[in-house]
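Try this one yourself first.
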């Protein structure tokens, strides 16, 4: 099969679904910087497994992103453990562990929404992201997460109620 011929198909598929996949990966990743890597790895895995047709259900890619994000989280936990040991050693030797100080300023409203989403349970976050940014139906969410259809709808409704309550407390 000519890969050059198939390249535009995948490019179009990714153009159509890529932004939503990235948003979902950002929600799944413990480290936002990993989101692009997670999407890329998921995309490559799917491409290798299902060939070069470009006709892959987005739900399958969402599942793959979820699994890869779990793997990334496990790697992060192990890395943080190693860094903590090194930091403790540095403290013992030098009496301080402050190497860098940094601060990031973000738009207040965006930060408030992000914080409100983080306050949701992981189960509610997943459904909210898949429905709102993933553009999936409750049936697709149900299949992707392996939960009953009504549970997916209920989690979405509760997530929206919690977000509304959290954001209504903010000064206008």
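Now uncover the answer:
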């Amino acid at each position: 099969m000519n890969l050059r011929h198939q390249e535009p198909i995948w490019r179009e598929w990714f153009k159509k679904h890529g932004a939503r996949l990235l948003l979902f990966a950002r929600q799944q990743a413990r480290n936002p910087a990993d989101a692009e890597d997670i999407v890329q790895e998921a995309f490559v895995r799917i491409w290798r497994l299902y060939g070069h047709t470009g006709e892959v259900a987005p739900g399958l890619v969402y599942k793959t992103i979820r699994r890869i994000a779990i793997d990334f989280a496990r790697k992060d936990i192990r890395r943080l453990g190693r860094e903590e040991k090194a930091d403790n050693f540095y403290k013992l030797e030098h009496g301080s562990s402050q190497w860098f100080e940094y601060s990031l300023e973000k738009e207040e409203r965006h930060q408030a929404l992000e914080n409100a989403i983080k306050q949701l349970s992981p189960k509610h976050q997943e459904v909210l992201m898949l429905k709102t940014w993933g553009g999936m139906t409750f049936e697709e969410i149900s299949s992707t997460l392996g939960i009953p259809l009504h549970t997916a709808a209920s989690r979405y409704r509760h997530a929206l109620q919690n977000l509304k309550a959290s954001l209504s407390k903010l000064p206008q």
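Discussion: The chain has seven helices and no strands. Residues 58-94 form the longest helix (37 residues).
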